[in-house]
Amino acid sequence: MTQFNSQLTTESAQRTDIDEQWWKEAAVYQIYPRSFNDSDGDGVGDIPGITEKADYLDDLGVDVVWLCPVYESPNADNGYDISDYRSIMDEFGTMADWEELLAELHARDIRLIMDLVVNHTSKQHEWFQQSRRREGEFEDYYHWVDGTPDEPPNNWKSVFGGPAWTYDEERGQWYLHLFDPEQPDLNWRNPDVRDAITEMVTWWLEKGIDGFRLDAIDHLSKADGYPDGDPDEPIVGVEHFSHGPRLPEYLDELAAAFEDYDTMTVGEMGGADIEQVDDFAGDDGLDMIFQFEHMGIDAGPDGPWDPEQFGEWELGDLKEIISQQQNQIDWPTLFFGNHDQPRPVSRFGDESYHAESATLIATLLLTLRGTPYIYQGEEIGMTNNEFDGLEEIDDPMTVGAVDDLIADGVVDSYEEVADLVNYQSRDHARTPMQWDDTENADFTDENPWFDLNENFDEINVEALRSDADSIWQHYQDLIDLRQAEDVLVYGDYDLLLPDHDQFYAYQRTLDDERFVIVLNWSNEPATFDADVEAIDSEILISNYSDSPSTPSGEAFRPYEAVVYRC
Ligand code: GLC
To answer: Are residues 170 and 291 in the same domain?
Structure first.
């Protein structure tokens, strides 16, 4: 007999018209190829290395792989700077390797979505090379603006720090790059650019892929002209280059390219409010949007690179934001990490309750309404790394952010922001995957491109898979449960005990099915002692192997997470 409070904060939307889709029922696994598995001993993960792990992915139970960019690239931003959309980066293998990967995944009923980076290309892309020489149709493929070499066209800042403009001597004009200077922004105002992208998208769809994750998609449309940005914005100019006036039109055009294919599409929108998501996703748009509000709860007023304030967060904020996403977004994406974020167990969990807090986060991820995205290594609770200096950092965003803080006089030296870097750097997610406790964690034979996290002797796939109560096992069980229970996929979501500062508890309901999920998100015991209504219940999953708690007066242990069928 279990009891639960029936007091709710947010009204669920009470959906009766369930629109079943394979991508709603799928668990997605994100692979950052450079750091996943090296098959040829050059220290860099590669495509045959992923194929070697196809059975691993199948055993874990995931349904879709999202492959971060594997296209030809000079790697100024690890593949997010593409120099040829139709070929594979040498370090990662060949097109034949990629075809084999697709076939091996499909043979296991795992679909494959590719990363589509079309806000910008690499400077080495043929389009840019021809554009800087003003050749033919390519002349206006990028944002070129007149000006003297000492005065950028406006005050816009790049997301990676420094000005968003670089002067190109060869063409004698400035070009826009919202990210690295090696990543010039494509000029979506030019219909030829849009046609070229549609052609390329269709080329990949014809190769049999199952969809795309669309990178930085909220930046495609820039304000008319290039008006000065508000210097008080954390990224100066963002109000003019995020969600610009023609974004809906561009996304509609892109979505039309997917129409004849059975795909899933998910757009990354770093700046979209919860209310904006359904303007871009749904019937005619993309299937889903990554909305990032919950990833900002630990940032200061100046954003994630605010040295004055970072790393503190409140459970109440997390519950409130997730509840809004759950109840306001037609089909939410679920994620607590990716290749751009610190590791969730270090950030939202507690490394001294490593297994408990990693499995608690997994429980939330896999029992909310929406499509869950597991980033490589989360299934073993990979943690943040310790970086001892800027020379250990690979990520251009981290380097640019530190440079800006020093240039703006906010701090005098790296030492003053070492803690912030160790909290925030995107490199935490990019240390190589920890397969076992042998040398280099069996990621590679020698010289990994990036140092491993030293804790691989304990935190590794082999150790966790052989333990029936491990984090890995928990992921597998939760994925299985979600696949078996429609209520976990399509059911309504209602938050329970909204004001409790230790519990994150909620119910999922579909017809007469009712699941209750109770997470004690704290390192102290907590008693579920609210005004309750008696309900029969069965424990489906718990992250403490011995007698999981029932809420009737008994204390939940630190980071205890239980899923009940009521
Ligand atoms: C997206 C990617 C990130 C990349 C950036 C520029 O935010 O997730 O890794 O650096 O776009 O392409």
So the answer is: no
Q: Are 221 and 190 in contact (CB under 8 A)?
A: no
Residue of the CA atom closest to atom 7 of ligand 1: 216
Residues 249 and 359 in one domain: yes
Q: What percent of the chain has pLDDT over 70?
A: 94
Amino acid (one-letter) located at 181 = P
> Which residues form the catalytic set?
215, 268
Pocket lining: 226 vs ligand 1, CB cutoff 6 Å: no
Q: Is the CB of 394 under 6 A from ligand 1?
A: no
Residue 331 sits in the same domain as residue 344: yes
Ligand 1 pocket member 81 (CB < 6 A): no
Expressed in angstroms and rounded, the spacing between residue 81 Cα and the centre of ligand 1 is: 9
pLDDT at 555: 85
pTM (two decimals): 0.96
Please check whether residues 268 and 351 belong to one and the same domain: yes
Confidence of residue 1 (pLDDT cuts 50, 70, 90): very low
> Does residue 287 line the site of ligand 1, with CB under 6 A?
no
* 68 CA to centre of ligand 1 in angstroms: 10
* Banded pLDDT at 401 (limits 50, 70, 90): very high
For residue range 260-293, list pLDDT tens digits in order.
Answer: 999 999 999 999 999 999 999 987 789 999 999 9
Q: Are residues 219 and 233 in the same domain?
A: yes
DSSP letters of 42-84?
Answer: SSS--HHHHHHTHHHHHHHT-SEEEEPP-EE---TTTTSS-SE
Of the listed ranges 22-31, 419-428, 511-520, 528-537, the one predicted with least confidence: 528-537
Q: Which of 117, 215, 241, 397 to mutate to test the pocket of ligand 1 (most atoms within 8 A of CB)?
A: 215
> What's the 542 CA to ligand 1 centre distance in angstroms?
36
Domain range for 137 is 126-176
| Secondary structure class of 472 (helix, strand, coil) | helix
Q: How big is the CA angle at 313 (ends 309 and 319), to the nearest 5 degrees?
A: 150
Mutate to test the pocket of ligand 1, among 68, 80, 394 (most ligand atoms within 8 A of CB): 80
Is 50 exceeded by the pLDDT of residue 110? yes
- Whole-number Å distance, alpha carbon 33 to ligand 1 midpoint, is 15
Residues 6+ apart with CB under 8 A from 174: 144, 145, 146, 147, 152, 153, 165, 166, 167, 168
Q: Looking at the chain, how many residues does it have?
A: 566
The residues, ordered by sequence, that sit 6+ positions from 439 with a Cβ below 8 Å of its Cβ are none
Q: Determine the Cα–Cα distance for residues 121 and 115; give it in Å rounded to an integer.
A: 13
